[in-house]
Design goal:
Length: 328
């Protein structure tokens, strides 16, 4: 076998110096392109907020902060207050989260940890198909199927069992704040389920194997090794569902009753910020009326951005607490 003589160090250095330096233009161009795209998204958010503020300038000057604290909505007298709509948006979204979050996370846990392999894909496909149904179709289903069923069955039962509380008092109309929350829950359930499922699938198998090696049961493995590991991601999935719930329009408009009032009972009709814009935008004949609706949109925009910022703060707080406990 021939012996290859080693290349002298001086020769190797001379060859290396003679090679052209690799071009960095491609890396720089890709970096600047992605930066421009990211800044475009931020700029789009600011432009939307600026346009809403510009379109509601007249209402802001006339009503000021009282626009957020008054309950009168009278287009004839040109007196506008957004408090009933803020209340309806927040309450219906909270109802939707209370219903959808346990169902979504439980479904995601079943599909990733407990379900047989042959049934996982069919159920996942059905959930994704539910997300593809247009909101107006769900609204029609809510009017002709859900509302009569709720009015004849669950609502009287809730009033009978919990009528001693202010949450389930008064006459039963069917269209109500609770019906709006239920239809929103149906719409955000596939979103939270799909995102939660992907998050749980990303949990390393080493977590599960370590828990089983310590003698944990399947429930303990799911609770300690899986859910505890993925809790920040699951919280992010809930926030995505909240963003959808706050801005949902057509389906809620068709089942919530569209009455600008603040009532403790969930069986009474309500109104949301998105619904009042959809219902009355074409009817706004005066500048003040139109700009009040623009300010409604600005309030909804601010609530959505604020909810996401608060969620980010919670995530950072949870992360710091978890790190402190791990160090201790």
């Amino acid at each position: 076998m021939p012996i290859v003589a080693p290349i002298p160090a001086e020769e190797e250095l001379r060859v290396t110096q003679a090679m052209p330096a690799p071009s960095r233009w491609g890396d720089k161009a890709f970096e600047w392109l992605t930066l421009a795209m990211a800044l475009a998204v931020v700029l789009l958010v600011f432009l939307v907020g600026w346009q809403l503020a510009r379109g509601s300038e007249l209402a802001i000057k006339k009503f000021g902060f009282h626009f957020l604290t008054t309950s009168t909505w009278d287009p004839v007298a040109e007196q506008f207050g957004a408090l009933p709509f803020i209340y309806g948006t927040v309450v219906s979204s909270l109802i939707a989260l209370i219903i959808a979050v346990p169902l979504s996370i439980a479904t995601a846990v079943f599909l990733t940890e407990l379900a047989p392999l042959w049934i996982r894909q069919p159920i996942t496909s059905l959930i994704e198909m539910l997300a593809a149904i247009p909101s107006v179709i769900l609204g029609l289903w809510g009017i002709f199927v859900m509302i009569p069923w709720l009015r004849d069955g669950p609502f009287p039962l809730l009033k009978k069992l919990f009528g001693w509380t202010p949450l389930f008092t008064g006459p039963i109309y069917g269209v109500s704040m609770l019906a709006g929350g239920i239809i929103i829950a149906i719409m955000i359930l596939p979103i939270i389920t799909s995102v939660s499922r992907e998050i749980l699938r990303s949990v390393p198998n080493l977590q599960r194997e370590a828990a089983y090696a310590l003698g944990a049961t399947r429930w303990e493995v799911t609770r300690i090794a899986v859910l505890s590991y993925a809790k920040k991601g699951l919280f992010g999935a809930v926030i995505l569902g909240l963003g959808r719930a706050l801005g949902e329009t057509m389906a809620v408009t068709m089942v919530i009753g569209n009455t600008p009032q603040i009532a403790a009972s969930l069986l009474k009709p309500g109104y949301t910020l998105a619904s009042v814009i959809a219902n009355e935008f074409t009817e706004a004949t005066t500048d003040l009326y139109l700009q009040s609706l623009f300010e409604i949109g600005l309030v909804l925009f601010a609530i959505t951005i604020g909810a996401n910022l608060i969620a980010q703060l919670f995530l950072k707080a949870f992360g710091s607490v978890s790190t402190t406990r791990a160090v201790q």
